[in-house]
User: Fold this.
Amino acid sequence: MSRSTPPESRAPLDPFVVHARRETLVILAAFAVCLVWSIGCSFLMGYGEPVEGGLATVWGMPRWVFWGVLVPWLGADLFGLWFCFFFMADDPLGEPEDEADRADDHAAQPPSAEEGRHA
Assistant:
């Protein structure tokens, strides 16, 4: 016996939920990519056989630090900027539902200069 609701009787998902799920999946995928890149690169470059010629460096830091730490950090920063400014949906929250919410919103706003002169 199945307890699941038939697809035709399910209510459609709210757009907020759809956007939140999509954004969550994108962030988790980006995190997974950075995690695999950082750990994999650091392991492969940092735990190799010791070289007699010395430690390989890029811009004065060990090669594994540059490729395994610095590059993923910079990539995550650039991704975060793109994600926040161009990908995330800015959903309107709508109007307050009842009169008490409207009164609270009005009371929270400071009076404008025009209202102050007439008071």
